[in-house]
Design a protein that fits this description.
Blueprint lengths: L1 H7 L13 E3 L6 E3 L5 E2 L2 H8 L1 H28 L7
Antiparallel strand pairs: 1-2, 2-3
The chain binds zinc ion.
Zinc ion (ZN) binds next to loops.
């Protein structure tokens, strides 16, 4: 699940709020924000932890989207039979 966050949810720097300036040290896994020079000694895991609130709301809105799509699909399915879901 953690790996999926990386693809779908942008992690932001807890200090400057930017997500475009991270640099990872391949040897130590330490992540540095090049914009504000904040160093995340815990690496990716620390970043995920600090972004947990964003991630949760992001996951919630993704769930909502999925729900909407499902309801849309069901509605078009039921249209033929005269049902309407809200
Ligand atoms: Zn930063």
């Amino acid at each position: 699940m953690k790996q999926n966050y990386n693809k779908h949810i942008k992690l932001l720097c807890a200090t400057c709020g930017s997500g475009d300036f991270f640099e990872k040290n391949e040897k130590t896994d330490v992540i540095t924000c090049k914009k504000c020079n904040r160093v995340y000694h815990g690496g990716y895991d620390e970043l995920v932890e600090l972004n947990q609130k964003n991630i949760n709301s992001e996951v919630e809105s993704m769930k909502q989207e999925v729900k909407k799509d499902i309801i849309k699909d069901l509605n078009s399915m039921f249209k033929k039979t005269g049902f309407k879901l809200k």
